[in-house]
Structure formats: structure tokens, C-alpha cells
Amino acid sequence: MYSESAEAVYLKSSDKTNSINTGLNLTIPLNLGEKTFKLQENVHDIITNSTGLEVDHYYLCLEIDGEKVIGIDPAKGMF
Questions:
Q1: Are 59 and 28 in contact (CB under 8 A)?
Q2: Does some domain include residue 52?
Q3: Quick one: which of 61, 57, 55 has its CA closest to 16?
Q4: Is 6 among the domain residues?
Q5: pTM for the full model?
Q6: Least enclosed by CB within 10 Å: which of 14, 23, 42, 59?
Q7: How many domains does the chain have?
Q8: Is residue 7 part of a domain?
Q9: CB-based contacts of 19: which residues, under 8 Å, 6+ apart?
Q10: What residue numbers bound the domain in which 19 lies?
Q11: What distance separates the 2 farthest-apart alpha carbons in the chain?
Q12: Per-residue pLDDT in tens (0 to 9) along the chain, 79 residues
């Protein structure tokens, strides 16, 4: 293992958001979008810190009725 702390670079400017307005004012679980984002960022940190590999990444976000529901880090091939 590497003893240095490293982080993969999150490219926020590359994020893409798809919004759906249902007009139903659906109740979205609290902070679901933020929780999925943080979970994936933690996975990136674990991989980077244990392997030394840094993979730049961005997220595809889904909003329903103005609430972020999920953030997905799309898989990329590593070369």
C-alpha cells in the first residue's frame, strides 16, 4: 500500500444533469443524491489510496421535480 494520501480529480464542470418534472411533487428520500455522490467519491478515494491510480471522473445526475435523486459516475475504460 501507498502511505501517501491521493485523490482522483472530480471534474465538476463535466457533470451532466437530466431533469424530469412530474408535476406530482414526489417525496424524495432526504439527501439521496448527495449520499450516492459521497459513496462514489469514497470509493474513488479508497482505490486511489490503495493502488496509487488516479482516475479523473464526472457524474451523470438525475433530478426529479427539482431534487437530485442520484449521481452516477459512468464507467470508463482504463488504458
A1: no
A2: yes
A3: 61
A4: no
A5: 0.66
A6: 23
A7: 1
A8: no
A9: 62, 63, 64, 66
A10: 12-72
A11: 51
A12: 434 555 567 788 888 999 999 999 887 777 888 888 889 889 888 888 898 888 788 888 898 988 888 888 876 654 3
